[in-house]
Design goal:
The complex is a heterodimer of chains A (about 190) and B (about 80).
Chain A: H1 13-32, H2 38-58, H3 63-86, H4 105-122, H5 127-135, H6 138-148, H7 154-161, H8 165-190
Chain B: H1 26-42, H2 44-47, H3 51-74
Classes of the chains: A mainly alpha (about 190), B mainly alpha (about 80).
Chain lengths: ~190, ~80
């Protein structure tokens, strides 16, 4: 959708409604794959859109970039939800506003992705491939899940992971090559 | 194909070209794609928003949007 970067306040309701309708199912699916509780998934999804709209109002709005931006917000909201659910943060407050300890985002991120990764791995036919994915480093497994389970576009994957397109391309190949090598090794061991 | 793929969507509008995959990795890429399809089918109910949630959030955001427009027009 090519809009010439109008201010968000000038965007008409119909355009925004169409943008929302196109994006909500995918953002919700992304969140619900990582949170088993429907009420929590709805809360995180709603918070994602409220936050995305709030930020989009403050900056020049680009409808084409809004989808990628929404996934960045959703990924962050999931981490906040994981940390909040294990701590004492009140709902509606971002955990990152409070936490001043060494950054625990990585472990919270792993928690949110475990559920999605389990679902994806369970759907793989070959046992060797399942084992190879489970042995991947966390960042590579996360990328594989975003790409094949969530089917995010390249820009959305970049936004969710905070990587450039070049970094993403390099790491996609790195992950696939690691899986390929693990499968070849297992096959040669079995022969 | 996911149900949302058929909706008019800002996603996949052409600016986000897929990462090209080496020929030697294409079979693995297809195998993982197929697993993704099966996983999405398995999770289908869990991954679908309810109609009530969809409409409520839509109304809330559009109301907020309209409120902002009013504030701006009053300035």
């Amino acid at each position: 959708m090519a809009l010439e970067r109008p201010e968000f306040s000038e965007l008409n309701r119909t355009t925004f409604a169409r943008l929302f309708d196109g994006l909500l199912p995918t953002v919700y699916a992304f969140v619900a794959s990582r949170i088993d509780d429907r009420a929590a998934a709805e809360e995180v999804t709603a918070a994602t859109f409220r936050r995305a709209v709030e930020v989009a109002r403050e900056e020049a709005f680009d409808a084409a970039a809004f989808a990628a931006f929404a996934f960045r917000v959703a990924a962050s909201a999931l981490v906040d939800e994981a940390r909040r659910s294990r701590g004492t943060y009140p709902r509606g407050v971002r955990a990152s506003d409070f936490d001043r300890r060494s950054d625990p985002r990585r472990s919270a991120q792993a928690t949110t992705d475990e559920s999605a990764a389990r679902s994806f791995v369970a759907a793989i036919d070959r046992r060797a491939l399942r084992r190879a994915i489970e042995r991947l480093p966390e960042a590579q497994r996360r990328l594989i899940v975003l790409r094949y389970l969530d089917r995010l576009t390249t820009d959305e994957q970049c936004a969710a992971l905070g990587w450039s397109r070049e970094t993403l391309a390099r790491r996609v190949h790195g992950a696939l090559r690691a899986l390929h090598a693990a499968l070849a090794e297992e096959a040669s061991g079995a022969a | 194909m996911r149900p949302e793929d058929v909706l008019l969507s800002p996603r996949g509008g052409g600016s986000s070209a897929p990462v090209p995959i080496d020929v030697v990795l294409e079979a693995l890429d297809r195998e993982l794609e197929a697993a993704g399809v099966r996983a999405r089918l398995t999770l289908n109910g869990q991954r679908q928003p309810t109609r009530f949630f969809w409409l409520e959030l839509r109304r809330e955001l559009l109301d907020a949007f309209a409120g902002e427009d009013e504030q701006i027009s009053r300035r």
